[in-house]
């Protein structure tokens, strides 16, 4: 495998390569449910149509667009990619918008399905319009040669240019290629679900919009933000004997960082990345086999995944960080949390950092409506001075809030264990644990 990978090269595609590129692309997606719903079975007419499109694109010699072929040692083309590099805002804004009603489609294509799919793709891409960026619009490896390194070689081609020009990156991904893109520093920022059952397929499939801020730097030096530092430090101190305590938080720089298990956080042990992937597929397959007309949206899916993971891993306690917050946040399906910070759920102890008069009044009103007792938490004097982020007033307030939430939880679930002063191990752990935080 390793020797085969080293013989694969990424080279600029020539006009005469158009048909080979089309053949590789259609072969790569021949077993993909979305592609089958959009374009039907792989056929010679489809290859001819796609080859014509690719030839027209190559012939334009657009300096922003690089048509790439992955070739073996004998020059056999086994992969193809189309990279776009917009080095200034003007070139990014100049990208032609595709009129889906006027676009010509290949014979046998399901026009309604194509409009549905590409309409949502173009919606996501519009988020990068007007910005300098690198964009991978097409990426495929012939099925017989997948796993030999062709994909990584073509990704590396674009990553190197993006790094040289200091460009953020953008691409769209199916579940199949998701992990490969993550290894190159891309993270999910958008998504949609295509209901292929409407177009003769089975179930539905997610499509992810992914970006990376500075591709090579992120891949080489993954200085990732960690899960919320204050709650995590308190977990470690207050529950030192339990490795089964998990915390759910919104996606950080890696999808798998969204779930963390004390003792082996998901971003630094391969076995938990495998666990994340396994549980994601278990949840998704259950959802698409349920024949429901409404699948969960992105954050709802992540919340379901969290519940599934927590049950499977037999956890003792969970810390959920809300997604966007508010009454209709996906995490608010939890009926009776032991403790909640700010979130207005009936029966929960509720805390907020100190607020200005108007937001404080709004929070009090909402707490009254929901029948909860709201406590505003000032800066905690037990926290150490001159330690890392605790020198920053707003972070000191945030840490004080985390400390108060932990204290309330312990009072209810472990009344013999208290957090009262600087001599408490939890306060010491929290203070020193934040010393190196940025």
Question: Could you walk me through the main structural features you see in this protein, from its secondary elements to its overall organization?
Answer:
It holds the Pfam family Acetyltransf_1. GO terms for molecular function: acyltransferase activity, transferring groups other than amino-acyl groups; ATP binding. The chain has 438 residues and is α/β, with parallel strands linked by helices. The chain folds into two domains: 2-220, Aminopeptidase (3-Layer(aba) Sandwich), CATH 3.40.630; 225-334, Mur-like, catalytic domain (UDP-N-acetylmuramoyl-L-alanine:D-glutamate ligase). It is 41% helix and 16% strand. The protein has 15 helices and 13 strands. It has helices at residues 2-7, 18-28, 33-39, 44-59, 89-93, 111-125, 150-165, 175-183, 215-220, 229-238, 270-288, 298-312, 357-370, 393-413, 425-433; strands at residues 9-12, 65-71, 77-86, 133-141, 169-173, 187-194, 205-212, 246-248, 259-261, 318-320, 339-341, 349-353, 374-377. Strands 1-2-3-4-5-7-6 form a seven-stranded mixed beta sheet, sandwiched between helices. β12, α13 and β13 (374-377) form a beta-alpha-beta unit. α11 (270-288) packs across α12. The protein is elongated. The two termini are 41 Å apart. Residues 1-5, 214-253 and 262-270 have low confidence and may be disordered.
| Largest sheet entry | 7 strands, mixed
Low-confidence stretches: 1-5, 214-253, 262-270
- The appropriate CATH architecture of the largest domain is 3-Layer(aba) Sandwich
Helix fraction, binned, reads 40-55%
How many beta-strand elements?
A: 13
Q: Largest beta sheet: what is the strand line-up? A: 1-2-3-4-5-7-6
Secondary structure class reads alpha/beta
Rounded mean pLDDT score: 77
CATH class designation of the largest domain: Alpha Beta
In CATH terms, the superfamily of the largest domain is Gcn5-related N-acetyltransferase (GNAT)
Task: Tally the structural domains.
Answer: 2
Order of helices and strands: HEHHHEEHHEHEHEEHHEEHHEEEHEHH
């Amino acid at each position: 495998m390793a020797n085969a990978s080293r013989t694969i090269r990424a080279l600029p595609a020539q006009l005469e390569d158009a048909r080979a590129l089309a053949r590789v692309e259609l072969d790569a997606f021949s077993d993909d449910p979305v592609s089958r719903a959009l374009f039907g079975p792989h056929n010679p007419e489809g290859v001819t149509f796609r080859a014509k499109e690719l030839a027209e694109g190559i012939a334009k010699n657009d300096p922003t667009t690089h048509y790439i072929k992955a070739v073996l040692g004998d020059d056999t083309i086994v992969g193809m990619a189309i990279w776009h590099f917009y080095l200034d805002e003007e070139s990014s804004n100049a990208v032609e918008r595709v009129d889906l009603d006027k676009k010509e489609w290949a014979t046998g294509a399901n026009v309604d399905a194509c409009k549905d799919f590409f309409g949502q793709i173009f919606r996501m891409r519009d988020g990068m319009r007007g910005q300098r960026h690198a964009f991978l619009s097409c990426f495929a490896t012939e099925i017989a040669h997948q796993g030999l390194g062709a994909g990584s070689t073509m990704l590396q081609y674009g990553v190197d240019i993006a790094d040289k020009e200091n460009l953020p990156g953008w691409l769209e991904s199916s579940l199949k290629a998701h992990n490969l893109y993550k290894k190159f520093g891309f993270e999910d920022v958008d998504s949609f679900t295509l209901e292929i059952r409407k177009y003769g397929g089975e179930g539905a499939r997610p499509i992810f919009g992914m970006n990376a801020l500075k591709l090579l730097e992120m891949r080489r030096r993954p200085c990732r933000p960690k899960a919320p530092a204050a709650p995590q430090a308190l977990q470690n101190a207050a529950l030192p004997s339990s490795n089964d305590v998990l915390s759910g938080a919104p996606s950080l720089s890696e999808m798998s960082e969204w779930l963390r298990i004390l003792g082996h956080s998901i971003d630094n042990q391969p076995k938990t990345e495998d666990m994340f992937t396994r549980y994601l597929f278990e949840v998704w397959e259950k959802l698409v086999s349920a024949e429901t007309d409404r699948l969960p949206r992105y954050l709802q899916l992540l919340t379901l995944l969290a519940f599934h993971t927590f049950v499977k891993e037999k956890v003792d306690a969970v810390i959920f960080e809300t997604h966007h917050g508010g009454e209709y946040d996906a995490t608010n399906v939890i009926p009776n949390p032991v403790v909640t910070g700010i979130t207005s759920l009936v029966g929960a102890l509720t805390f907020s950092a100190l607020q200005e008069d108007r937001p404080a009044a709004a929070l009090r009103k909402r707490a009254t409506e929901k029948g909860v007792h709201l406590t505003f938490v000032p800066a905690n004097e037990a926290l150490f001075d001159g330690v890392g982020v605790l020198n920053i007033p707003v972070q000191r307030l945030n840490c004080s809030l985390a400390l108060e939430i932990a204290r309330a939880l312990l009072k209810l679930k472990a009344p013999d264990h208290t957090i009262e002063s600087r001599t408490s191990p939890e306060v010491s752990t929290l203070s020193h644990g934040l010393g190196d935080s940025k």
